[in-house]
Amino acid sequence: VASKTAKAAIGTLRVHGPDSRGIVAACSQVLSQAGCEIINSEQWSDHKAMSPHFFQRFQFKYCPSTSSQFQSTDQSLAKLCSEFRLNHELNWRSRKQRVGIMVSKYDHCLWELLLRHRERELDCEIPVVVSNHRHLEHVADTFQIPFHFVPISPENRIEQESEQLKLLQQIYNVDVIVLARYMQVLSSQFLDQFDRKIINIHHSFLPAFSGRRPYHRAFERGVKLIGATAHYTTEQLDDGPIIDQDVIRVSHRDEVGDLIRKGRILERNVLVSAIQAHLDDRIIVYGDKCVVFGD
């Protein structure tokens, strides 16, 4: 029996699959029977698909009792979702997620993440910063976060990626990786270890200007809007499911440096927004897209 003085915790349940009548009621009943109080619920159906597809996110309050509560609820949900042919992710959120940051030489995103974390705007732990350059070690030192320099070259890429994975998985046990302007392409072997758990910030409004030097190419084309895109990393460069984007107007008076300066504001804010959505379990990846529920 849970203690009357036990502090209530917040959990999340995400489900998606073929749309059918009764899904919301059935999921709500399972949570209620487990002693959970639903405090937020959001749903959406994609009726443009060949067969309608349903998406739902529940946020619920509960009093932690015993592991048997978790196990029995997991079993009930697994049975229910099997009947409705749903995919589901139940997160009791009994601990904060651990976020590993990878960077190269650009510092604006790293500063933003560490400052926001210090101000408790990111509900996670940041145990490590990994870089292929030493340039930003002083930033990590400012926040007393371990910094690991792992140089990368075409000749040693496989060996050094193994070292990075050892740091991230075995030593610091991270749940999600943030590429805060990490300027290296990760191998498929690396990506397989963190499927849909690597968030990248790209300095353009994808799918426009993917790849290198997007600000310079945007300037050459005389665009009137520039943007930033946060997405999950896949083998196809800058082509993963998009989590968040934003844009800002530019004009013929702006030089490349102006585009870079304005764009970096977007990069910082979009990356933070995407990480918050991931940490809050507000994202369901569906094919090549992300369904992102409100905050």
- The share of residues in extended strands comes to 25-35%
> What overall geometry do the principal axes of the alpha carbons give?
globular
Instruction: State the end-to-end distance.
Output: 33 Å
What is the β-strand count?
13
Mean pLDDT: 94
Helix content: 25-40%
- Runs in which pLDDT lies below 50 for 5 or more consecutive residues are none
Tell me the structural class.
Answer: alpha/beta
Biggest sheet overview? 7 strands, mixed
Q: Please give the radius of gyration in angstroms.
A: 21 Å
List SSEs in N-to-C order: EHEEHEEHEHEHEHEHEEHEE
Number of helices: 8
Q: Order the strands across the largest sheet as they lie in space.
A: 7-6-5-8-9-10-11
How would you describe the overall organization of this protein?
The chain has 295 residues and is α/β, with parallel strands linked by helices. Helices cover 34% and strands 29% of the residues. It is built from 8 helices and 13 strands. The protein has helices spanning 23-33, 67-84, 108-118, 137-142, 157-171, 188-193, 214-221, 256-279, and strands spanning 9-18, 37-46, 53-62, 87-91, 97-103, 124-131, 147-149, 176-179, 198-202, 225-232, 242-249, 283-286, 289-292. The strands form 3 sheets. The chain has a 7-stranded mixed β-sheet, with helices on both faces. Strands 2-3-1-4 form a 4-stranded antiparallel β-sheet, with helices on one face. Helix 4 (137-142) links the parallel strand 6 and strand 7 (147-149). Helix 1 packs antiparallel against helix 2 and helix 3 (108-118) runs parallel beside helix 8.
